[in-house]
Amino acid sequence: MEKEYNNHYNYNMSAKEIAELLDVTAEKLPLLITRVLESFYSPEAGSKIGQSVGSLYKELVQAGLPQDVAVKMAGDYMFSLRDFMKIMDSTEQ
């Protein structure tokens, strides 16, 4: 008899079911990560990121923040996106 594991949702899973779930996840996750990275590195994504950073800067200035603060915050936002892409890229390897 297989041992069942309970989670906080009161859904019981056997060790075999958990193993099958992990197998499917391991099979599908690399392709998902690849597609996410491709969406970040495409020319369209670059354009959207540029628009996003520009919109953030514009909104911050319109809200009354000094330009130097808005530039810093928009730059930090852009670098956080870059850092996220680096993390995702390193998990793919």
TrEMBL record:
<protein>
    <submittedName>
        <fullName>Uncharacterized protein</fullName>
    </submittedName>
</protein>
